[in-house]
Write a structure and sequence with these properties.
alpha+beta, Alpha-Beta Plaits, 2 domains, two-stranded antiparallel ribbon, 6 strands, 45% helix
């Protein structure tokens, strides 16, 4: 009886990982069809929606890697919304491609990047 429960839990975990991988594949394929954004954010905040960020360990790793960018002043992660907010240093610029590279190198996919300009 104990073996049957263990096999059932193992299969359930495998199915959950497979679903997550399939969703990531769908988003990566869709993102490849969209033309890349070549914009740069200057002295503002950037919100990034990330696919695959499911635990606090994932969030901490991404936060640490994004803080290493020279233009970054602060990084906050909303794990529930899969969203990262990057505050830039005054007058600093950060290219979307730099953000995409750091997130991809960390093992995640970018769904959307949005620049939020400060109020005048």
């Amino acid at each position: 009886m104990l073996l049957r429960g263990t096999v059932h839990r193992s299969f359930a975990m495998f199915a959950a990982h497979l679903r997550r991988a399939m969703l990531s594949l769908v988003f990566v394929t869709a993102a490849a069809l969209v033309a890349p954004a070549w914009s740069a954010a200057v002295g503002s905040r950037v919100e990034v929606t990330v696919n695959g960020m499911v635990c606090s360990f994932c969030a901490q790793g991404l936060e640490r890697n994004l803080r290493r960018l020279p233009a970054t002043q602060a990084v906050s992660v909303d794990l529930q919304q899969h969203r990262i907010t990057i505050s830039l240093k005054p007058g600093a610029a950060l290219d979307d491609q730099q953000i995409r590279k750091v997130i991809r190198d960390s093992g995640f996919d970018v769904r959307e990047i949005r620049t939020i300009n400060p109020a005048p």
